[in-house]
C-alpha cells in the first residue's frame, strides 16, 4: 500500500478516535494539525480504552483532551490517564490540581498518598460541609458581591476551600440560592447588557492609553516599580523552585543541582538558595537607550524589592564592535539611574569554562564543526548543514584546529544541534575572529556567540530569574528566563546601527545628542533619572511590547523638575525697555523665590534697574482681542518687582523694526491690577539656548508604509533651533553642567557640558505644561 494511503488511513483513524472522545469534527481536525498534541491525545485515549473499553463518555473525553493539551511532562501521561479512566479524577478542578502537582514534583517516584490528598481523590463532601464552605466563600467575597452584584464572577466562589477540587451539582445550586438571598432578585440594571466597547483605531488607542496613564499619574507615581514587583504584578517562582515554572524542562540532574546550590557545594559565588539573583547583561558596543532603562529598573528593582542582588555583566564576546567608552558609559548610566551592581562581571571572565563546555557539548553529540558561510546561515529557512552528522572525533579535532588559528575567519564555526524558539536552526556557538580582545588580548582567536554564552553565564553566576536547552544539555544549573516586553517610543529610533547612520549623515552630533533617546542623550538634555524610573513604573512590567508617546515621558520629567528645578528668568528674543521714571538712582535688589509655591526653599537675588529686557513677543503695537500683555493703553506687571510698566514711546530703527521701548512705572498696589505679569531680566548674562523638537516627523519613522523613503528621509528640519544671544538673569552665573532650572514662562532647562567660563549653554529639557487660557 502506498505511504500516502497509509497516512490518510491513520489520520481517519485518529479523527474517529478524537470525535469518539466528544470533540466536534472541526475541533478534531484542528487537533490533528498539531503533531505533538495529537500524538499525546492519541496515546491518552488508547490507554484509557484499556480500562474503559472502546467507548469513552464525553465527560471523560473532555478531561483526557485537557490532560493531553496541558501536560508538559509526557512521563506522567500514563499515571494521570489511569486516574481519569478509573474516575478517581472526575472534575476539571481535580485535573488542574493534578497537573499542578506533577509539574511541581518532577522527580520519581510520585508520593501517591500526597498526590491523592492534594487532588481530592476519594474525598466525600457532606451536604453540611458544602453549606459551610459556600457560606465561607460568600463571606470572603461579600463586599465585592454587594458592589458588582450579578456581574461578579461566581466561578470564584466555587474555587475555594473544600469546593476547590470537588464541585457537586448541589454546591452550584446552593451557591445560587445563597447569592439570591444576599442580593435579592435581579433588577433592570442587573439585566442590562454590558455596553460594547468600540474598537479604536491604533492611533486613537495610543492616545487613550497615554491619557489614562496621565490621569492615573499621581497614583502610579506613588506605586514604584519595586512596589509593583513586590505585589501581584509578577508571580515569579521562588529561588530554588525553578521547576515550578510553566515550561521549565527538568532532567534527572535538576534537583541534585539545586541541592548543590543550597548546600554550597558549587563554590563559585556561593549564596543562600532563597536569595534572588538577577543580572543586567548589555553588549558593550553602543550606548544604552530608553528601552534599556526598563530592563535596568526591572532587574535591579526586582532584586532590591526581594532583598536580592543584581550583577552588571558585560557580554563582551565580539571584540570587533566593543570600545572602552561603551563600558564606561553603560556603568555610568546604571549608576545615574540610582543602582549599584553587586558585582561587575564580563563574559570574558568565563572564556576558559565556556570553551571546556563547548568541547563537552561535542563529546555529547550536541555540537559539530560546520563550514557553511555566513550568507548561507542567514534567515530562518537556511539549508541543513551537510556536516551536521560528522563524527564526534572529527569535530573535536576541527574545533581544536579553530582554537589554534588554523582556519580563516568564516571558514569554520561550531554549531549547536537545536531549533531555537524563533525557528532558527542550529545556532552558531563559536566563530573565528582574529581581532584582539580588549581584556584577553590575543589569547583567543575564537569567540563564543551571545546565543551560546548568555545562558551559561547565567548558570555560572547562579542567576535565579533570567535558550536554556544548553544548560540541560550540559547538565549544569539551569536558571529560569522570564520574558518581558520591550519598551519603545514613537518618533524615535534606538537601533545602534541606525543611530550610527544618523551620526554619519550629520543629522545628530553623537550618541548623546539631546534629540535621541539614548540615556546619555536624555541626561544631556536634562531628564532627571528619577523621571525615567517613574516612567518605567508607569508603563509597568508587561509581557507584550509597549510603544508609548514621548509626552508621557515628558510628563514624568515635569513632575520631578517642578519640585527640584529652582526658578530663574531668561529672555530668548530680547527687547530693550527703558524705564524713564525709575524710582531710584541705582538698581534695586529683588528677592525672587526659588520655588514660588514653597518659599521655605529659599530665595535668590537679581538686580532691577532702569534698563530691562523683555520677550519681544510680550509687546504688540496693535493688540488683537484677547491679548493681555504690553500694548498701547495696556500696562503689564513685571514679575517679582511689585511694579507695573506702561508704554510711553516706541523707538524704531531705519527699517521700521522696533528697537526699544520707553515706559513709565508705578507700584502695583497704586492702581488697577494689570491683566498679566511678564518675566524680564536686568544686567543679564548672555548665553546660548538650544531648543529641541522631535527628530522625526512621523510617529513610526522605521515603518516603510508610513515613511517609504526610510527613516533618514523623515528628519524634522526644525528639530534644533539655536538661540545664540539669549539673556538670563545673573543668579545662574555659577551653574555647572547638568544643573537644572525652570526659566519662568519658558520651560525647564539644563546646563550643557559645552558650557565654558565665558558662556553658559542651556538645553531646553521640556516646555511647561500647556495652558489653554494662556495668550
Automatic annotation (TrEMBL):
Residues 186-211 are annotated as: Disordered. The gene is QARS1. It is found in: Cytoplasm, Cytosol. Its EC number is 6.1.1.18. Belongs to the class-I aminoacyl-tRNA synthetase family. GO terms for cellular component: aminoacyl-tRNA synthetase multienzyme complex; cytosol. Residues 275-562 form the Glutamyl/glutaminyl-tRNA synthetase class Ib catalytic domain. Monomer. Part of a multisubunit complex that groups tRNA ligases for Arg (RARS1), Asp (DARS1), Gln (QARS1), Ile (IARS1), Leu (LARS1), Lys (KARS1), Met (MARS1) the bifunctional ligase for Glu and Pro (EPRS1) and the auxiliary subunits AIMP1/p43, AIMP2/p38 and EEF1E1/p18. Interacts with RARS1. Part of a complex composed of RARS1, QARS1 and AIMP1. The keyword Ligase applies. It catalyses: tRNA(Gln) + L-glutamine + ATP = L-glutaminyl-tRNA(Gln) + AMP + diphosphate. Residues 15-160, 175-259 form the Glutaminyl-tRNA synthetase class Ib non-specific RNA-binding domain. Residues 565-665 form the Glutamyl/glutaminyl-tRNA synthetase class Ib anti-codon binding domain. It is an enzyme of class 6 (ligase). The keyword Acetylation applies. GO terms for molecular function: ATP binding; glutamine-tRNA ligase activity. Residues 187-211 have a biased composition (Basic and acidic residues). Residues 677-752 form the tRNA synthetases class I (E and Q) anti-codon binding domain. This is Glutamine--tRNA ligase. One of its GO terms (biological process) is glutaminyl-tRNA aminoacylation. Keywords: Acetylation, Aminoacyl-tRNA synthetase, ATP-binding, Cytoplasm, Ligase, Nucleotide-binding, Phosphoprotein, Protein biosynthesis. Glutamine--tRNA ligase. Plays a critical role in brain development. InterPro entries: aa-tRNA-synth_I_CS (IPR001412), Gln-tRNA-synth (IPR004514), Gln-tRNA-synth_Ib_RNA-bd_2 (IPR007638), Gln-tRNA-synth_Ib_RNA-bd_N (IPR007639), Gln-tRNA-synth_Ib_RNA-bd_N_1 (IPR042558), Gln-tRNA-synth_Ib_RNA-bd_N_2 (IPR042559), Gln/Glu-tRNA_Ligase (IPR050132), Glu/Gln-tRNA-synth (IPR000924).
